[in-house]
Amino acid sequence: MTATTEEKYKLLVEQARALIEGEDDWIANTANLSALLFNSLNDVNFAGVYRYENDELILGPFQGMPACVHIQMGKGVCGTAAQAKTTQIVKDVHEFAGHIACDSASNSEIVVPIFNQGKLWGVFDFDSTKLLSV
């Protein structure tokens, strides 16, 4: 029997919890989560974290091709998500004004802000080679 998409995502959440449970080190946790998501989600060519520091985003642990190290607030999908403090779902990055193309193979992107005690901590960035049909 093949698992449904919902079942696959529930398993992924369980795996993520098991990886970070009891571990306080942000580098270890974000590195493991990046690896888990990169290797578990279809067509993802980048999964990683940008940490918010000194009014910019700085590259943290990731999986994929080499990436941009510094992203200014409000620039690209990551900077837009961080500044607006909202998830950005971009079905076609080529239509996103100001898209930062770290990997030319990327066609869609999802960026989720991360908060710690109510304050912006960073963003989780996912790029895909496929156009989204959400």
Question: Can I get a quick summary?
Answer:
This protein has 134 residues and is α+β, with helices and mostly antiparallel strands.
Describe the structure.
The structure is a single chain. The protein has a 6-stranded antiparallel β-sheet. It is built from 3 helices and 6 strands, in the order ααβββαβββ. The relative contact order is 0.16. The chain is α+β, with helices and mostly antiparallel strands and 134 residues long. The model has no long low-confidence stretch (mean pLDDT 93). It is globular, with a radius of gyration of 15 Å. The protein has one domain (5-128): GAF domain (Beta-Lactamase, 2-Layer Sandwich). Strand 2 and strand 3 (70-72) form a beta hairpin.
Tell me the number of helical segments per DSSP (H or I, 4 or more residues long): 3
- CATH architecture classification name: 2-Layer Sandwich
The whole-number mean of residue pLDDT values reads 93
Structural class: alpha+beta
Give the CATH superfamily: GAF domain
Termini Cα gap: 26 Å
The largest β sheet comes out as: 6 strands, antiparallel
Segments where pLDDT lies below 50 for 5+ residues? none
Q: What is the gyration radius calculated from CA atoms?
A: 15 Å
CATH fold node name = Beta-Lactamase
Helix content: 25-40%
- The largest sheet has its strands arranged as 3-2-1-6-5-4
CATH class call: Alpha Beta
SSE order, one letter for each helix or strand = HHEEEHEEE
GO molecular function: L-methionine-(R)-S-oxide reductase activity
Protein name: GAF domain-containing protein
InterPro entries: FRMsr_CS, GAF, GAF-like_dom_sf, Phosphatase_reg/MetRdx
Pfam families: GAF (PF01590)
